[in-house]
Amino acid sequence: MQPFVLPEFYMPYPARLNPHLEGARAHSKQWASTMDMIDVPQHGTVIWDEHDFDSHDYALLCAYTHPDAGAPELDLITDWYVWVFYFDDHFLELFKRTGDIDHAREYLDRLGRFMPATGEITETPENPVERGLEDLWNRTVPQRSAGWRRRFRESTRNLLDESLWELANINEGRVANPIEYVEMRRKVGGAPWSANLVEHSVHAEVPDEIAAKRPMEVLRDCFADAVHLRNDLFSYQREVEEEGELSNGVLVFEKFLGCTTQEAADAVNDLLTSRLHQFEHTALTEVPALFDEHAVDPAGRMETFAYVKGLQDWQSGGHEWHLRSSRYMNEGALGSRGGPELLGGPAGLGTSAARIFSSVLATAPQRTRAFVHQPFERIGPMELPEIPMPFPLRLSPHLDAARDNLVGWCERMGILDGVVWDERRLRGIDLPLCGAGIHPDASAEELDLTSGWLAWGTYGDDYYPVVFGATRDLPAAKALTERFKLFMPVHGEPVPPPHNALETSLDDLWQRTAGPMTTDARQAFRTAIEDMTESWLWELVNQTQNRIPDPIDYVEMRRRTFGSDLTMSLCRLGHGRAVPPEIYRTRVVQAVEHSAIDYACLVNDVFSYRKEIEYEGELHNAVLVVRSFLDVPQERAFEVVADLISARLDEFRHATEVGLPSLFADHDLDSAARETLTGYAEELRNWLAGIVNWHRECLRYTDAELDRLAPSADTPTNAAPATAPAAATPAVAVPVAVPAVAVPLGPTGLGTTASRIHAPAP
Question: What pTM was computed for the model?
Answer without folding.
Answer: 0.86
